[in-house]
Design brief:
This protein is α+β, with helices and mostly antiparallel strands. The protein has 9 helices and 21 strands.
């Protein structure tokens, strides 16, 4: 039988740690779904030096360690996390060139975007309203309304857990693809991103590729600020702008990725199905597939507190008191219905903690 670990405060004192490690922190309080049990151990990362020290502590105690940012793309388990959670609270920004800026991983993403458009910098305006922290954006290569963060990222600074060293990865080394990167594929869990450097376009034209967004303007040349306001309006109308008190606002945003399929798979769908070229393949609308498989806005399984949003079927929401088990049961049901109707498997976006 394994001996009980000493109290966290005693371990902290004995080892002379600078980083402050505490016990039992509710994950529901730190995720936008507001679901999840407690983290066995918890630490706020306010300095880069905290990271290797905290990871070394976890290794010495024989427990796993996970990184949590803004909690907007996370589904935490009902039993919580049995190891140490490193909550990224690194703050600060610095200009590194004309329109080039390095941003600490703990900075609020939408706040950063607001600052860019206020200065007339183009490059991230379509990514307005996306909740979460800056450090999480390269992991998933966040994208919306015809724009991806990979288009603006120069590189990322990170602690390499495998090599035990600080590294700076270029855009190419991040391995970006649709809603993915090396950080959530082959090197999942290896790197702890502490800062992201982006190249914006001072005085540049806003990105206006997405049809739904283009229809918001009578002109072909809106400013980045006008595009930001339009994007936030569209997201608000779909309950995808996570604001206090918003109906169906307890969600992880889009729960499923838009599937990218071979051309012959897309050709088998009805002509009304939205589709977009993605290299040699075709990107489909997950929302269309869900709704046209017979699942309506507001759908929920009997007795469950999890539901599809009443404003957008792509979001699974916590109606109050939902559990992770209920969220996952609804997600599996959606996948099964879509697979049976269209022979296409939807892939969830949120990270399981």
């Amino acid at each position: 039988m394994q001996a009980a670990l000493p109290a966290v405060s005693l371990l902290h004192e004995l080892l002379g740690l600078r980083v402050n490690i505490t016990g039992q922190e509710s994950l529901a309080r730190h995720t936008t779904l507001e679901v999840g049990g407690g983290a066995r151990y918890w630490t706020e990362i306010t300095h880069e030096a905290d990271i290797p020290e905290a990871l070394a502590w976890a290794e010495a105690q024989g427990v796993t360690a996970a990184v949590l940012g803004g909690g907007s793309n996370v589904l935490a388990g009902d039993d919580g996390y049995p190891g140490l959670v490193l909550h990224m609270a690194l703050a600060g920004q610095r200009e590194t060139g004309a329109g080039r800026i390095e941003v600490a991983a703990g900075e609020d993403w939408d706040g950063f975007v607001a600052g860019c458009v206020a200065r007339g910098w183009a490059g991230v305006e379509c990514l307005s309203g996306i909740p979460g922290s800056v450090g999480a954006t390269p992991v998933q290569n966040v994208g919306a309304y015809g724009q991806e963060v990979a288009e603006a990222i120069v590189g990322a600074r990170a602690w390499d857990r495998k090599a035990g060293a600080w590294v700076t990865l270029t855009n190419a080394e991040c391995g970006f693809a649709y809603r993915s990167s090396r950080f959530n594929r082959e090197d999942r869990g290896r790197f702890v991103i502490t800062a992201v450097e982006l190249q914006l376009r001072p005085g540049g034209a806003a990105t206006l590729r997405y049809p739904e967004l283009r229809r918001q303007f009578a002109t072909d040349a809106p400013s980045p600020l006008e595009v930001r306001e339009a994007v936030r309006g569209l997201r608000r109308g779909k309950a995808m702008l996570l604001e206090p008190g918003m109906e169906d606002g307890r969600s992880a945003g889009s729960f499923f990725k838009n599937p990218v399929v071979d051309a012959e798979v897309a050709a088998a769908l009805p002509p009304a199905a939205p589709r977009y070229k993605d290299g040699q393949r075709v990107k489909l609308s997950a929302a269309w597939l869900i709704e046209n498989a017979g699942l309506h806005k507001g759908f929920q399984l009997p007795g469950s507190h999890a539901a599809l949003s009443r404003k957008h079927v792509l979001a699974i929401v916590n109606r109050g008191g939902a559990t992770a088990v209920e969220i996952e049961a609804l997600a599996r049901h959606v996948q099964a219905v879509v697979s049976e109707r269209w022979k296409i498997r939807l892939e969830p976006e949120p990270v399981r903690l």
